[in-house]
Amino acid sequence: MAQVHIERVSKIYSGTQRAVNDISIDIPDGEFVVLVGPSGCGKSTLLRMVAGLESITEGKVSIGDRVVNGVDPAERDIAMVFQNYALYPHMKVYDNMAYGLRNRGMPKAEIDRRVREAAKTLELEHLLERRPRELSGGQRQRVAMGRAIVRSPKVFLFDEPLSNLDAKLRGQMRVEIRNLQKRFGVTSIYVTHDQVEAMTLADTLVVMNNGVAEQIGSPLDVYERPASAFVAGFIGAPAMNLIEAVVEGDGRALAVGASRLAPFSHSPALEPGRPVTLGIRPEHLRRAHANEKADMDLVVSAAEILGADTLAHGRIAPGGTGAAPLIVRLPGNVRLETGARLPLVLEPGAAHLFDGETGRRIDLAEAAVAPQQAAMARA
Amino acid sequence: MTDTATTLHTGAPDTPATGIRWGLLFDHAILIAGSLFMLLPVYLAFMTSTHEAVTIHIGGVQFLPGDRLAENYATVLFDGIGFAGAVNGTTMMVNSMILGFGFAIGKIVVAMMAAYAIVYFRFPLAELAFWAIFFTLLLPLEVRILPSYEIVQKMGLINTYTGLIVPLIASATATFFFRQFFKSVPDELIEAARIDGAGPLKFFRDILVPLSRTMIAAIFIIMFVYGWNQYLWPTLITTNEDYFTLVRGIKQIIQVWVGAQIPEYSQAMALAVLAMLPPVVVVVVFQSWFIKGLTESDK
Fold this sequence. Notes:
heterodimer; A: CATH 2.40.50.140; 32% strand
């Protein structure tokens, strides 16, 4: 068991292309870190650099107290679970799990003990004599996990391990992976593009985009205080509404197309004319009561009825093509008609503001919200 | 054949009122004609091999069995043939076996290693090396036979098994096939093996070779038959009858047309039938492997 330090690591392809750009992450012993981001954001490359499957162009990776930049993957004391399982097709389940141990010259009895123990943990005991092709996707995934567990490595690395499973199984395996990791207490790095997986598994979430860590923090932290418009839009489903706006008047109102909003009436003023992006989560808007003053009106264009919730899609009044699109999460019993005008109230303090140009978060109510360290990797 | 019967049988309920399905009949007519076309020469060779040379000389190829089956085959296998009479069918068969197995195994080993290097290692001019190998596909043995002979002769390898096998052991075809196969092996497998502590040799031995079983079986069939049927190269390289192969031996029998002697057609036929057996065995054995590998494999 060990901590992992990723220190200003970059991966540069063919001289110029930075797949991973100057990322630093400190992972304490036993922590579960999830790298999440859209495809091509560099998350897998970063993981593979930790694994030693990819060379490190710049920076330093250390596992425990040892810098492992030049160390062979087999010598790094890691275990990796791959997306397509990467089981050896010609070997039985038992041999698949035992192969790595045999290569290390472990005594036969010890190998047998470890494999059987892992098989028991993963409920694979009755499958030990089967070959991978005779197993279902979920079972194969378990074998891949088993292969990682028997090694009792310092670090588990997961490269989108659940992407090939169907939704139900994915949910089960997610819980299982989390429980296993808790039980063994092994430091883990997990790559996924699925933000639900990311939110539920992570102790620490690293949101990546274009090779850069946009934000590093606890899942709730990332959800509640996204460091950039990208993070705001990526974490949360349905995605946060990101509305282009311009600061107006006394610096406390925003012009959104033809309409005017004042969600930050209590916050410090911004310079008028500054372009910003207003972020509002669909769940932070509600229907205004009869005599309440609405913050904005929604012209409903479609309703998605999910049972527990109803998602109202539409545009901010006065509507029309120029108006900003908006999604609102309403209780499941609300019935909506297309074209109806829905007065909405924004929950106090729930709006986010991002710089219109850089996309970075603008902290408005520093005094209102307890300052949390914006754990940002970006220098 | 069993398949045909089954098809006909299960097809019966669909048979229209007329009772004859012309399409099916036509299909089978073609298939039967094709089978006959392939099998008839073998049948004729076998029938002819059971007659006396004189009968064949007079009556040509024989359709019905004769009475000299045991005698002809015994002569061919155990009595001396050829000018010196120093070599018999058994020796020639052993020689052919050595050539066939040497070829097939040698080619598979060399080609697998070459393909392994090309696919998995980054070395300067790797791409060029591959294409250089690939282009030799265009140059059959006959084109380079003179320089090859010159080298083998200068190395003093005439009349040795080494001289017979080694100069032909590099195979562009096999290298190409193995390269394509290795390229289809998912990268994750290599990475998993690397993390499992398998170095290049271990990965090759423990993972790549077992995965290639199907490919090896296929290449073995092709290369064994290719080696077994070699004629030109053994003819050039062997002057000593001890190194004669079966295919050469057949030619040798028919060539003995000296004075009033009638060529031993029956013996030549017997030898031809014998020469056919090992490749048939190899194909049958490896084909079952091959098919098993095909249906079982998933990478």
